[in-house]
Amino acid sequence: MGNRIEDVTVVGGGDSGLLTALAVKRVNPGVDVSVVDDFEAEVPQVGKSTFRAIRNILHGVLGIDEREFVTEVKPVWKASVYFRDWCGRPPFHYPFDTNRNFPNPDESDTYEGYYFFYEEGHNSAEYQTKCERIVSERKSPWYFDPGKGGLSMYDNVAYHLNTERFNAYLRELCRDRGVALIDDEVVTVDVAGDRIKRLRSRNRAYESDLFVDATGFSRVLKSEQSDAFHEFDLPLDTALNARADLDLAEVVPATVIDTGDHGWFWQIDTFDNRDRGYVYASEFVSEGAAREEFLDHCEGIDADDVVKYEFTPGYFERAWVDNCVAIGNAEGFVEPLQSTGLTVNAKAAVTLATLLSGHGQVQDDWIRDTYNRWVDRAWRAVFDFISLHYAYADGETAFWEAARSIDISPRAAFLVEQFDRHGFDAHVDPVANSAEFDDLLFFPPWGFYTLIRNMGASSAFYESNDFAMGDRKRRTVERYYEDIREDVTDHYDHHEFYHGALGQY
User: Fold this and answer.
1) Which helix (H) or strand (E) holds 469?
2) What pLDDT, in 10s, does the model give residues 37-72?
3) CATH superfamily to which 79-157+235-311+387-484 belongs
């Protein structure tokens, strides 16, 4: 027989912990929710990049007012992941409108559009999607719409977030919505088997129907339970991070990726600074040499400001064990490529809250198993996608040789084979839509195809058949992309938006 959850205690006041508290409280308003953390401690300053789903989670499910959020948090809008240099490949984007790379006015000439994208449109500056054009012209998604008499926004974007602003905003939102924030530090966890009996600080004890471990890689609660940790076949395990000054007019509205000798560099532009990072494999380079490479690559950062983070790619196979759910980095982490961490964790928080609501706040084996299956699929989907970046990499160092040996999953291999045999298949073989493949919702087939084509994958379907684009289709394509170019010209850049246009919001 299950037991009813009347109170939830979240340990850890980072972004994942606060988002979980907000999700549980909003979807289960009768449940008492509290967050325990040392709120006097400094908030980690690593810039947070997200993907498109974050906006619906924040402004849809969590009901966060978008105007208030923009005013207080001051995000930068991200339109793509921009691979400026990936193992010597020509620069390319992974945009958030990968399912709209060409116009298709009717079904009679669908194959022509697919072939055009394969042959000419996959990395052409002339045939950029709107997301790609926004990035190349350093624009925000905002523009003035005379028909509406005010601001309008292109929706296929995500956020770059300054963690201090974001975390401070989430704290205030928790207080406004009845989530108790307790400034304390857990020092002891009392357990009986896998069950968390109580938490102890130096001054008091905490008991709860459900505990959430959101303590990051410290895993204060999760480490007290018996659970298998599934490691991913990725050699990366360390990141260096620092910030540089940035003029808002110079914002690049994309997460920018460059290849290093032993990993890759990121650039995440936020309202306050340019966040730089180097993700590398410590097996192949010393920390000192990695720091030197990082400083040589990144202008404007101070050696004394560089911070190191260590991680093990993988996840716990059971996120929810007995009366404790691990979320965020406490549950799992792959690596920063494609900015999956915050958005997947926010989705996990919403999934947890929704399951609790739909199950009458009763915790039993069914709800734990259901949630654990979702988490398992989510992390495997992330690894599926990220692993493909290395399968097609052709760097020449020992690290890149090791990276190319990563085994991609059956799901990823299926889509690679699909692309080779059938090209850009709009519908994909029905097996891809079965329960085994439903975790592709994070990265749909078009996203896989866009990535691997830009990384050099070819398709025997297109290479062995005599396709050509007809004049009718070409005229349609030219008009379509010309409209995009003209449209994006009218968008505000981030400086213009925050120092003028925001007043029209």
Assistant:
1) none
2) 999 988 877 779 999 899 999 999 999 999 999 999
3) FAD/NAD(P)-binding domain (3.50.50.60)
